[in-house]
Amino acid sequence: MTTLEPTPAPQQRSVPKLSFTDAEAGAKTFPGSESRFFEYYKPKGRKRTHYEDVTIDVQPDPRHYLSQGWLYSFADGQAGYPLEWTVLKAWGEDTNTPPKRYAASGGQATADKVGWPATGWHEFRDPNEEWEQTIYRYNANVVRQMTQNIDNARETKAFAQWNPSWVRFVERHASAWMHPEHGLGLYVFVDANRAAPTNMHNNAISVNGMHRIRFAQDIAMYNMTLANEIEGFDGTAHREAWYQDPVWQGVREVAEHLTAISDWAEEVFCTNIVFEPLVGELFRTQLVMHSAPGNGDYVTPTVFSAGEYDYAQRDLRYTRAMFSLLTEDKEFAEHNKSIMQGWLSTWVPRCLDAARQLQPLWSQPEAKPPRFEDSLDAVKERFAGICRDLNLQPSKELGQ
Amino acid sequence: MSRQSLREAHQKIQELSWEPTFATPAKKYGTDYKFSKAGKKDPLKQMLRSYFPMEEEKDNRVYGAQDGAIRGNMFRQVQERWMEWQKLFLSIIPFPEISAARAMPLLFSTVPNQELHNGQAIQMIDEVRHSTIQQNLKRLYMNNYIDPAGFNSSLRNFHNDYCGTIGRQFGEGFITGDALTAASIYLTIVAETAFTNTLFVAMPAEAAANGDVLLPTVFHSVQSDESRHISNGYATLLMALQDEDNRELLERDLRYAFWNNHAVVDAAIGTFIEYGTKDRRKDRESYAEMWRRWIYDDYYRSYLMPLEKYGLTVPHEEVEEAWNRIWNKGYVHEVAQFFATGWLVNYWRIDPMTDEDFEWFEYKYPGWYAKYGEWWENYNRLATPNGHHPIAVEAALGNIDYQYPHRCWTCMVPCLIRQDTVHDKVDGQWRTYCSETCHWTDKYAFRPNYNGRETPNMGQLSGHREWETLYHNWELSDIVVDMGIVRDDGKTLTPQPHLDLDADKMWTVDHLRGLPFPSPNVSLNEMSDEEREEHMALYKQGGPGGRHAAAAAG
Ligand SMILES: [Fe+2]
Ligand SMILES: [Fe+2]
Questions:
Q1: Where does this protein have coiled-coil stretches (chain B) (predicted)?
Q2: What is the tens place of the pLDDT at every residue in B420-437?
Q3: Which of A70, A262, B141, B430 shows the smallest number of beta carbons within 10 Å?
């Protein structure tokens, strides 16, 4: 073995031969031949779900089986997915500290020491059960349907029905919504997917991030189509509005502050529990979707309702499950609730302020939407309901 | 869409980002690299409107193939030798995939270029795809392959077995420490650009040759996302090269990352490809031949070397030495022998090598038989319990000439090429290293200063890095119970050193009683200076094939 070049492979063709091995399930009975389930985790329900099988414990935990601990640390000594990256707590995190391992300690992961789950964090399951197939099926359906809707509108000259003030409204304001979707998608959700303590959390959060980035692009592509289809439609107005128009500066300010939060749970909570109902749904549903039909536009609502569905039916759903587990935690419910109340008292006024700055938009379309105050009341009620579901008090900051 | 409107659409997507004025995104992760805000264009130009349907289509093909394979009774013709190693491979691989997803935010904090962040977000969800599609494949194997043991415990045992740490670096290395070192150089510039070829191209080819058409289906689908990730990495690298101050760090990180990837990936994938296959056609490429083509020619010569025009020195010595280890020093063979020595603390079955295998090895790696043949004959002889001990214990008793190796503190593959072993007292502990570069990695690279400059963001090597430490002097029967590698009858081991599933041919906990297992590193640290130096001098004279020094001399 002293030459430096491998033996060149001979030139003639050959193919691997297959042989009959009979290595299929059930071909033989022997110890272990029937144990066909992932035995290392406890399912939430009676049966293991497909989602659980492909998700749980891919991200390891020294409180479970990771007997040698994390192999790399940051400069400050933190490693893996530190529980300290949020101030919220889940049962077991103080008492079931990672076992001390040392020479001859053994792995210390048997059921009588650290069982599964070791902490309340591991109880979280994404109710949407997102994994590879669901992610692509869902989002592919959305973009396909949306493209068809827009194509159809173009062919039937639907945009010609729009009154001029509505054209201005869509180019400048409805389109401006692409920016917060994009910024929060990247710098709240994609950003937070590094930080939460389990794979269940981080996968759900990453899917949320993609919903937002997709919806941002949906609006951008729609805007591009409109610029090509509608004479005089200014495809750059949304940017100018987002940067300069006083009505948008409150939203931009609160969005930028959301991205500046470093606690992963706080950024997810404040965005999905506070910002989304009080600002997001206020703008998307109460204003854009309610105004469009009266102004001859049945297309924009189909674009916006896709984003609305992402949030209301999927992203809010996992967020509720994630945080209600913490407000009902058998050890830290009070601790968590008081922290979340603190977040509410900071972020509800900020979001209401941003919402109020949007108010002039309610008088811009020719066919007016419901009154601003009614719209605001509706989203406040929606927000209060979400808070009540989480056992939180919404009232003080809402000024009701 | 026309080219024109595609360009227009991509332009439009770039309008989504904005320069914040009220508050800026939290900087959670740090780097010692310096970046000036500069426009590297997003190389991907991937829009979600086309991305989601494209991936869905790829998925449909994968799941269609899976249904077809099961209907076609694929498992009647898969090789158990191969499938057993999938218990390890498919434990490892979903973790680096998901870690790559988690790594993307490290770059948000540190690389000031929003265009690139778009591509990184798509990479994130690609990686979620890869992780879960691979978990799903493992689940399918568990449900349809004859022996589910080990698949069913994979994410417990990968986290506690005796070679899990080797694979786990390839994953943890992406997400922790200096953001650029981890998420850019280690992950994209080295792992994805160089080593995914062996993972996602060589593995599928070998799987197919062993009757498994599903691994190729899944992994080619995964690999088809990879070129976009490679472009992400290259764009970041070009940005880093714009500041001369970064060169020294780039050189440090390329050196560390290339060597660690070599040590880890070649250990694992090399073993799967050479020792996990039944395909012994002489014209099938050996792992060494593939490595020469993909890593040496395609990566080193065509990708790394051209970077030198930017004033960078790429790790020539490490590349040459990696090749030297694979081709001349028997790296893969030594590793496979180590895995098989420790068969009883793994969670899969390792098939003995036969005459046909010997012939192939001798043909592909002339001189193989003289080094490893006898040991594998012993392995075969001791495969079924028959009044003797497992081969590792027979070796400890002096009945087989194999000296249980020291671990490399850095890459955690043992110091198998004995003459290259380095020992040193680092952080107050005597440590062993497989190579100069691994020694340098621990002692000089992963430190808060480097060559006299402050590197306050550099990560640290941590954890109980020698697996054997935790079980120092435990009885083997207690170790396997503690690890959870016992089958559901409560006594038969999950791992076996053969493929025979007759219960009376299988090893049980009872066969392992009264057999203590000392940690080489604990023992080393208990020695006097004199004892230690003598011990290490002899150790370095040992090999190949784990022979003791005396035997090597004689
Ligand atoms: Fe991947
Ligand atoms: Fe090493």
A1: none
A2: 999 999 999 999 999 999
A3: A262
* Test mutation, B28, B75, B139, B156, chain A, max A CBs within 10 A: B156
Helix axes A316-327, A199-229, angle to 10 degrees: 150
Other CB atoms within 10 Å distance of the CB of residue A15? 10
The partner residue sitting opposite A59, judged by closest CB among B98, B108, B330, is B98
Q: What is the SS3 assignment for B176?
A: coil
Q: Please, which residues 180-209 of chain A have a Cβ atom closer than 8 Å to chain B?
A: 182-183, 185-187, 190-195, 199, 202-203, 206-207, 209
Q: Is the pLDDT score of A21 beyond 70?
A: yes
Average pLDDT over residues B257-284: 96
- Picking from B263, B241, B17, B71, the residue whose alpha carbon sits closest to that of residue B163 is B263
Q: Quick check: B105 and A256 CB within 8 A? A: no
CA-CA distance, B144 to B136, in Å (whole number)? 12
d(CA A170, CA A164): 10
Structure tokens given for B344: 């009883």
Which residues in chain B have Cβ-Cβ distances shorter than 8 Å to A262?
Answer: 26, 28
pLDDT confidence of residue A108: 86
Mean pLDDT of chain B: 94
CB < 8 Å from B in window 161-180 of A: 178-179
- B493 forms beta bridges with B486
Contact between A147 and A225 under an 8 Å Cβ cutoff? The reply is no
Q: Which of A64, A202, A220 sits opposite B102 (nearest CB)?
A: A202
Residue B506 CA to residue B494 CA, distance in Å, equals 9
Helix (H) / strand (E) containing A72: strand A72-73
* Cβ-contact A149, A299 below 8 angstroms: yes
Rg of chain B taking only CA atoms, in angstroms? 24
Chain B residues near residue A186 by CB distance under 8 angstroms: 108, 114, 117-118, 121
The DSSP annotation for A200-261 comes to: HHHHHHHHHHHHHHHHHHHHHHHHHHHHHHSTT--TTHHHHHHHH-HHHHHHHHHHHHHHT-
Q: What are the structural domains, with CATH classification, of chain A?
A: 132-398 (1.10.620.20)
* Interface residue B160 vs chain A (CB under 8 A): yes
What is the predicted pLDDT for the residue at A1? 41
What is the whole-number distance in angstroms between the Cα of residue B417 and the centre of ligand 2? 10
Closest CA to B482 of A62, B506, B474: B474
The residue of chain B with its CA nearest to that of A178 is B16
SS3 B145: strand
Q: Give ipTM to 2 decimals.
A: 0.95
Most confident range, picked from B32-41, B195-204, B222-231, B253-262: B253-262
| Residue of chain B nearest A55, judged by CA positions | B132
* pTM across the whole model: 0.96
Say whether A103 and B522 touch across the interface (CB within 8 A).
yes
Minimal-distance CA residue of chain B relative to A77 = B460
The CATH number for B53-351, chosen from 1.10.620.20, 3.40.50.2000, 3.40.930.10, 3.90.660.10, is: 1.10.620.20
Q: Which tokens in the block code for residue A287?
A: 């204003």
Across B295-327, b (16+ Cβ under 10 Å) vs e yields bbeebbeeebeebeeeebebbeebbebbbebbb
Separation of alpha carbons B458 and A267, rounded Å: 27
Q: For the segment A342-376, what is each residue's pLDDT rounded down to a tens digit?
A: 999 999 999 999 999 999 999 999 999 999 999 99
Cβ-based neighbour number of residue B452 at 10 Å: 6
Q: Is B529 on the interface with A (CB under 8 A)?
A: no
Answer yes or no: are the C-beta atoms of B422 and B410 closer than 8 Å.
no
Domain ranges of chain B: 53-351
